[in-house]
Amino acid sequence: MKLVVSMFVTLDGVAQAPGGPDEDRSGGFEHGGWSVPHWDQAMVDVQIAWVDTLDALLLGRGTWEIFAAHWPQAGDDDPIAVRFNEVPKHVASHAPLGMTWEGSTRLGDDVPAAVAALKHRPGNQLQVHGSPGLVQTLLRHGLVDELRLWTFPVVLGQGKRLFERGTVPAGLKLLDTLAFDTGVVFQHYAMGAPVSYGSFMRDNPPPEELQRRLGIDAPPAPHADRGGPR
Predict the structure, then answer these.
(1) Residue 126: in which H helix or E strand, if any?
(2) Which CATH number is 104's domain given?
(3) Is 216 within a domain?
């Protein structure tokens, strides 16, 4: 199975608590629910079409607890709920799961190895929704095949970010992009492209630029000759 991550982020990369004020207040975060005012039916339709392709869910403990308290109660008229409730759910957690959600199992202590084994099972997609802490681990171990990024027109300046300090450099290939009337931009990437580099610098820079590159202070400019007797 391909491992595909879906993440909601602000323009400054915050991924914490997009769905409600009490979703995740850790670190004193007080901006929960920042994504909600920006949803419309067109966005929901994109999510429904994608969720219909999943064969299993992979979730971090915090996201699983939020989902387990919500989706079983959502009703059979909600296509996302129906699909989430019927597929296997694999949870990255160091402790036993504290509530029941049919089809849920806890991964072993070696999460990267367990996820690699899941990817070798038959199926189309192993989907990760939210779970920013788990996603950090998956990215570090090169386990993410595709990234579906929903960027919202919000800047928060604090909170857990998708790409935290220590993120491994990686190239991405853009597969699709959509812009919605609410200001949200959706980008679908394939992971694994090489990171390439270049330079706009001149091949033969002037002495001042060469000194800057080498970290050498430029010599003081000579005083202008003001004329007069010597």
Answers:
(1) strand 125-129
(2) 3.40.430.10
(3) no
Burial classification of residue 172, based on how many CB atoms lie within 10 Å of its CB (0-12 exposed, 13-18 middle, 19 or more buried): middle
How many Å is the maximal CA-CA distance in the chain? Answer: 98
Query: Does residue 7 lie within any of the structural domains?
Result: yes
Domain presence at residue 218: no
Picking from 79, 84, 53, the residue whose alpha carbon sits closest to that of residue 66 is 84
User: How far is Cα 143 from Cα 110, in angstroms, rounded to an integer?
Assistant: 14
8 Å CB contact between 58 and 133: no
CB 173 within 8 A of CB 193: yes
C-alpha 159/C-alpha 15 separation (Å) is 7
Number of structural domains the chain divides into: 1
Q: Which of 90, 181, 171 is nearest to 129 (CA)?
A: 90
- 220 Cβ contact partners less than 8 Å away, ≥ 6 residues apart: none
Query: Which tens digit of pLDDT belongs to each residue from 13-64?
Result: 999 999 999 999 999 999 999 999 999 999 999 999 999 999 999 999 999 9
- Is residue 87 in a domain? yes
**Residue 106: domain span:** 2-184
Helix (H) or strand (E) holding 73: none
Query: Regarding beta strands 185-193 and 171-179, do their DSSP bridges make them parallel or antiparallel, or are they unpaired?
Result: antiparallel
d(CA 51, CA 59): 14
Written as one letter, the residue type at 142 is G
Cα 142 to Cα 45, 98, 134, 146: the distances in Å are 30, 30, 13, 11
Question: What CA–CA distance (Å, rounded) separates 124 from 33?
Answer: 31
Mean pLDDT on 186-193: 93
